[in-house]
């Protein structure tokens, strides 16, 4: 797994996204599967990231204050708050995993199968898969009950 900071072009929102690899990121971007979770902008690119460099064993960490701009929507967290945030994210990931236990991966056939269930052409079942943002919006406009997953899901054949 690899994490990238991504940034939308329209509003400049920066958000974190996880991918199986750099190639997965490029593939999902090419297929229009990546969008800003705050404004829905599909014009998203990699944001500048600070490298994670471990300090030398004999050096003390230097605390460098960052100037906050009036446009800065980030939240400063203390160590305790950061730990709570990690716990919340982990709990959300576990809840998603639990919810998907009885769900069937349908891959790129998601939109077709969701519509078929909605219109009574197929028995209703819990499914998950891939769909482009514009197609997900079209499903919602039709009244098809769909929801985005907070974390990416690897297809069954990609899991080790």
What overall form do the CA principal axes indicate?
A: globular
Helix content bin: 25-40%
The counted number of beta strands is: 5
Average pLDDT for all residues: 80
Secondary structure class reads: alpha+beta
How do the strands of the widest beta sheet line up side by side? 2-1-3
Largest sheet: 3 strands, antiparallel
Distance between the termini: 12 Å
The ordered H/E elements are EEHEHEHEH
**How large, in whole angstroms, is the Cα Rg?**
19 Å
Figure out the total of helices.
4
Uncertain regions spanning at least 5 consecutive residues: 67-73
- DSSP strand (E) fraction? 5-15%
Helix-strand blueprint:
Layout: E1 2-8, E2 14-19, H1 22-30, E3 44-46, H2 79-100, E4 104-107, H3 110-118, E5 127-129, H4 133-141
Parallel strand pairs: 4-5
Antiparallel strand pairs: 1-2, 1-3
């Amino acid at each position: 797994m690899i994490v990238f900071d991504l940034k939308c072009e329209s509003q400049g929102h920066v958000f974190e996204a996880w991918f199986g690899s750099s190639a997965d990121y490029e593939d999902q971007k090419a297929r229009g599967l990546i969008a800003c979770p705050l404004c829905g902008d599909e014009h998203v690119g990699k944001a500048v990231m600070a490298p994670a460099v471990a300090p030398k064993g004999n050096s003390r960490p230097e605390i460098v204050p960052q100037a906050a701009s009036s446009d800065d929507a980030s939240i400063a967290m203390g160590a305790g708050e950061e730990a709570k945030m990690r716990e919340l994210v982990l709990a959300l990931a576990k809840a998603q995993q639990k919810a998907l236990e009885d769900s069937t991966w349908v891959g790129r056939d998601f939109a077709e199968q969701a519509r078929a269930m909605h219109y009574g052409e197929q028995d209703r079942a819990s499914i998950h898969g891939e769909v482009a943002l514009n197609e997900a919006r079209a499903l919602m406009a039709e009244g098809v009950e769909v929801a985005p997953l907070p974390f990416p899901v690897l297809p069954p054949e990609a899991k080790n």
